[in-house]
Amino acid sequence: MICFPKNDAVRRYNLRILVAMIFYIAFLVAAVWTFSHHHPTGLPAYGLAILPAIPVVGIVVNIGFYLTEEKDEFLRNLLVQSMIWSLGVTLTITTVWGFLELFVPVAHLQLYLIFPLFWFLVGVSGWLLRMRYR
User: Is the pLDDT of residue 104 over 90?
Assistant: First the structure.
């Protein structure tokens, strides 16, 4: 978003993202530590493995809240365009990598890396769009 928010929607968005990221880090550390020290099995293992994904759902919901709360049409449109470009590039990269995995010996792409890739690309495309509109 914006480094120094000037409106309430961006402030709320940043606060909710911060809270979600704190939970994400805490849940991820807890899951990694528990699996490496206690080796859970069965239903608890599944629950613990899914635990770090819960804040990811919160991040997606937060985007929906931001898009409804943001009054500035330009900022809303900028985020939507960034997400659409990022979605297209993410789908292209993962499809190409999937075919590479299918036909030639390349490293396996861990699925949990797709979400951070998407958001990295949102940042890059948002920056490029901002440069375009200067």
Answer: yes
Q: For residue range 83-101, list pLDDT tens digits in order.
A: 999 999 999 999 999 999 9
| 88 vs 82: CA distance, rounded Å | 10
57: its two tokens = 């759902």
Report the distance separating Cα 93 and Cα 84, nearest Å: 14
Alpha-carbon distance of 26 to 34, in angstroms, equals: 12
CA distances from 133 to 74, 78, 128, 129 (A): 10, 10, 9, 6
CA 73 to chain centre: 23
Identify the helix (H) or strand (E) that includes residue 20. Answer: helix 8-37
* pLDDT of 5 above 80: no
68 Cβ contact partners less than 8 Å away, ≥ 6 residues apart? none
Cα 99 to chain centroid, rounded? 24
Full-model pTM = 0.86
Rounded Cα distance between 120 and 114, Å, is: 10
